[in-house]
Amino acid sequence: MRPAVSSLSALDAEVVSCRICPRLVEYRERVAREQRAAFRDWDYWGRPLPGFGDPAARLLVIGLAPAAHGGNRTGRLFTGDRSGDWLFCALHRFGFANQATSSHSNDGLRLIGAYVTAVVRCAPPNNKPTREEFAACQLYLERELQLLQYLQVVVPLGRLAFDAYLSARRALGQQVPEPRPQFAHATYYDLGNVAMVPSYHPSQRNTQTGFLTHEMFDLVFSTARRILG
């Protein structure tokens, strides 16, 4: 069992140095070396990504994993990819971010009462982590939940983040209702210490096909804002 950490900054340092999953280490570093033609002038991050945001956050957003040429390039989750364009625009509209866009890790983005993290911290091949990779990263999510002491609303983006969050709660001895909640977009779940409002993930597959619209995404964050007051 990994030792407890006393602060988010200590946890961040541990995440960034992680080399537990050989497949993910090889892939993230290979992508950083080979790069993409459009980003040849970038010095890719090529390491695991910690969560980021307000340490006193009342809202937690949980994604799946960094994008190979998004967060794995920029060094910050959801930064520099299309999913992030949707997320930060929505967070800004509802007062959880000081700006609506994020292109690199030093672009001035600041989250307000919000924290963003992911279930898996390295970019996975084909955006598909294995069961073992999910398990290896779950302890990082568990410790974030322990350190973010003011959370009132959790927004998992997609079914996999939804399942991972409930698993982390159970591992921490926190309430998970029976029967177990089922994933459904913008549904409200009272989990005792927090409210959970799941969303479809703002992936290009979902947004370009109309499976997730701006109105549907806004409903999730307007619900979170209403809960927080």
- Name the CATH class: Alpha Beta
Structural class call reads alpha/beta
End-to-end gap: 39 Å
- Alpha plus pi helix count: 8
- The total domain count is 1
Poorly predicted runs are none
- CATH superfamily caption: Uracil-DNA glycosylase-like domain
DSSP summary, beta strand count: 6
The gyration radius over C-alpha positions equals: 17 Å
Notes on the protein architecture:
Helix content is 38%, strand content 9%. It is an alpha/beta fold and 229 residues long. The chain has one domain (8-174, 185-228): 3-Layer(aba) Sandwich (Uracil-DNA Glycosylase, subunit E), CATH 3.40.470. A six-stranded mixed sheet has the order 1-3-2-4-6-5. It starts with 7 loop residues before the first helix and ends with a helix.
List keywords for this structure.
229 residues; Uracil-DNA Glycosylase, subunit E
Short summary of the structure?
The protein has helices at residues 8-16, 22-34, 71-74, 82-93, 131-147, 159-171, 204-208, 214-228; strands spanning 52-53, 59-63, 114-118, 153-156, 189-190, 195-196. With 229 residues, the chain is α/β, with parallel strands linked by helices.
